[in-house]
Structure formats: structure tokens, C-alpha cells
Amino acid sequence: MTLRTSLALLVLLALPGGGARACEVEAGAPDAPARTQVAVPETALLVGSSSFEWGLGPALARQLEDVGVRQVINAGRRSTGLARLDFHDWLAEAEALVQAHHPGLVVVQLGGNDAQHLRSPTGRRVADWGSDDWTETYANRVRSLLAILGREGAPVAIVGLSHPEEPGYARKVATINALWSVVAAERGAWFLGTWDLTSAPDGAPLIHRDVGGRLRRVRGDDGIHLTSTVAAWVAAELGRELARHLDRKAACALDPVAELPSTPADAP
After folding, report:
1. Whole-angstrom Cα distance, residue 91 to residue 180?
2. Residue 110 burial (CB < 10 Å; 0-12/13-18/19+)?
3. Which of the listed CATH numbers 1.10.3380.30, 2.30.300.10, 3.40.1160.10, 3.40.50.1110 matches domain 3-8+36-253?
4. Residues pairing with 191 in the sheet
5. Pairwise CA distance, residues 120 & 126, whole Å
6. Residue 62 CB neighbour total at 10 angstroms
7. Where do runs of H (alpha helix) occur along the chain?
8. Residue spans per domain, the chain
9. CA distance 11 to 132
């Protein structure tokens, strides 16, 4: 099966397994799938774009600290990805970050800015969005990034993109999520989806979610970025999923997401 066929199948299946499961089910089910577990690291590195620079990234950093990670380096850079290496070269920066911090865990979320033509570090156009060349070239960039980030033996977790409101962009995001998921399985990385967490039962983007007994808007005015309260809730779900890979007891010890003050973007 080709990479492009695998991506098409995953998109048609609406990216199954996109949400973290409840602690009591995951820890208690006798037939739960085995997971590779590693020691809680001293240092974790977050690599991503705007959602990691603010909102989801800082909230996830707090979750990692709660399970015993002593230092979390948030390297989120807004407007970045793997498509425009002439704008920001994540492959080069990843090398420098690993050499500087020697992380024991790396968490990545990229792709939201990548539904466009691919360019080299010098600005040369190397593949057109939607083509087979784009799929193969982009997948190779993901492979290279994961290899660099995991070079010193750190496990790498990939956080999938959440479900945006605009249908055309949502289809592009689903394709990019599928590609990251395929490469994650190929490279032995952990793929932690957020699509299901931000989707309604009928598959449409979820507009409001109950968090702490109060109805909250899922996204800000751009229809893409999560509001602060929902970002904290999603981070708590991701934190539990990461903790299961690190320590099952730590996963169940995490408190539910704390009630946060309302902001205008959070209000229904």
C-alpha cells in the first residue's frame, strides 16, 4: 500500500483513535493494548507553531510538570511548519534544540500552516500542494524531523491538529493529520489525536463543550485555535495519555482540569 493510499484511507475513517481514553478504562481493562513505557524524564521539549506558543503548549507544559517532568522547554514558534523551510527551518532548529537541552521526551505539533507548496531553505519551490511529490517530500521532512528529535533516544509524541470549523481547511488538516499518523507508526512515535476531542458526534466540528459544568466555546474567532479553557481541557486529556506511556499510576493521579476564569472567547 502506498503512502498516498494510506492517507486516503485514514481520512475516510475520520482518523480513528483520535481522543485519549478515560484513565479508569485504560488502566483497568485486562485486554487493554500494551504500551511502551519509559521513565518520567527530567526535561521535555515542546516543538510546534502558534498553538504550542500559547494556549495548548503552556497548558500541556503544566500537565507534564504535574507528572514529574522538572523542566519543560516550549519552543513554539507561530506561523511555522515544515512547508516553508525558507521562513523557518525546523530541521535546523531541531538539531540545535536537542544539542542544547538533551530532552528525555519531545512533544510535537506541526502541520497547521503546511497546506501549501513546499519550499527549500533557499526558497526554491520543490513540490506543489496536493501532488504525489508533495506527499512524499513532506513525509520525508516529517521523518527527518522525528529522527533528529529522537536521536538521543528520547521518545517522541505527536499531537494531532484539532478539528477546525471551515470545511475546506478541515479537509486539508485531516490529510496532514493522516500523514503524521502514518509516519508516527512507521517511526515508532506516539500519535495523540485531538480531532475527536473537538468533533461532534455527527463528525462536524464541535462548537461548544461542557468543561467543569459550564458550556464553553471550543475555538476562538478564527475558527482554528482553541480557547484558553478548552485548550486546558484538551491538555489535561493529552497529559493523561502521555502519563500512561510514562507511568500508569501518574496517569490516574492527575487531577481533572482546574476551572479557569472565563474570557470573552470562552463564552458561548
Report:
1. 16
2. buried
3. 3.40.50.1110
4. 158
5. 7
6. 15
7. 3-12, 23-28, 50-53, 56-66, 90-101, 132-149, 167-187, 228-246, 248-253
8. 3-8+36-253
9. 16
Nearest to 105 by CA among 236, 241, 197, 254: 241
Distance CA 226, CA 219 (A): 4
> What percent of the chain is predicted at pLDDT more than 70?
78
Residues 18-55 have pLDDT tens digits of 343 333 333 333 343 445 567 889 999 999 999 999 99
Fill in the amino acid letter for 159.
V
Closest Cα partner for 169 from 230, 219, 223, 227? 223
C-alpha 64/C-alpha 60 separation (Å) is 6
User: What does the mean pLDDT of the chain come to?
Assistant: 85
Per residue in 199-214, pLDDT (tens digit) is 999 999 999 999 999 9
Question: What is the distance in angstroms between the CA of the first residue and the CA of the last residue of the chain?
Answer: 44
Angle between helices 3-12 and 167-187 (to 10 degrees): 120
Q: Closest Cα to residue 260, out of 238, 231, 239?
A: 231
* Pair 52, 110: CB distance under 8 Å: no
